[in-house]
Design goal:
The strands form 2 sheets. Strands 1, 2, 3, 4, 5, 8, 9 and 10 form an 8-stranded mixed β-sheet that branches. It is built from 5 helices and 10 strands. The protein has helices spanning 32-45, 89-99, 135-147, 215-226, 256-276, and strands at residues 15-23, 62-65, 73-83, 104-111, 123-131, 152-157, 160-165, 170-176, 199-207, 235-242.
Amino acid sequence: MARTPDGPPPPPTVQRVRIHYAKRGRLRFSSHRDFQRAWERALRRAAVPMAYSAGFSPHPKVSYAGAVSTGAASEAEYLEIGVAERCDPERLRAALDECLAPGLDVIEIVEAGPGTLAERLQASHWHVRLDGVRPEDAARAVEVFRAAGEVQVERMMKNGLRTFDSRSAVVSIAVVKPADARAGDAPVEGEKPVADAPCAILEMVVRHLTPAVRPDDVLTGLRLVADLVPPSPPVVTRLAQGPLDAQTGLVGDPLVSDRAAASSASLIAAGDVSSED
C-alpha cells in the first residue's frame, strides 16, 4: 500500500492561467532548463500563490508547452500555471514581467478556458535569416525542396541517430523580402551583418509532428537536395505557434478561446451583480 505524507494535503488549484511570453536577444542561447529556473524564481519573487502537487516532493503546478529549442528566439512561447488563490491576469503579468530578465518578456496572461493548451499548438511560423546567401540562390533551393516528395534527414536524439522526413511537415516555405518579413530582421546584438553582403530571409510554416521537424532540419534538407550551405549560422525566430488553418495554411492564436471564455464569464458575473441590485 502506497504511503502518504503526514499533514494536510496542499490547497487545491482554484484557477489556471496561461502565459504568452517572448524569448529575445541573447536569451535565445539559454537552454530550456535555464528558462525553467528563471520562471521558478520569478514566480517566487512575485509571490504568486502557486498550487502544488501532493506527495513527498511537492512541485509547483507549471506546465510548459511547445518550448523552442536552444539557439532560436521566439515571440510565441507558452506555459500554464495553477494557483491556489484567484489572481487578476493583468496584475500578474505586470508582477512577473518585473521579476524576469530583459529578453524574457511576458506578453499576455489569460485565464485558462476548457481544453488543453498543448492540443492547440499544431504548427509554428518561423522566420530564418541566412546571412551571406543570395535570395535567388535560396529561392532556387526552396523550389527544389517543394518539388521533392520527401527529404530524409538525420538528427541525433536521446535514443541515438534517427532518420525522418523533413518535407512532409512543411506546410509552406518561401523567400521573402525584408520589407515583407513579419519580424526578426534585427540581428542579435554583436552579430551585425556585413554591409552590402547578401542576405536571404525564409519564412516557413511547419506542422508539429513526432519527431519534431525544426528549422535546422529544413535547412539540412535544403542542403541535401539543392546544396544550399549558408556561410554563417542562421538566425531563427519563431513568430507564432498555434492551431493550423487547413485552408489558408496560417497559424492562429491559441488563446482566442480562452479570451472568449473569460469575456463570457465577466459578462455573466456583471449580469448577476446587476440582477441583485
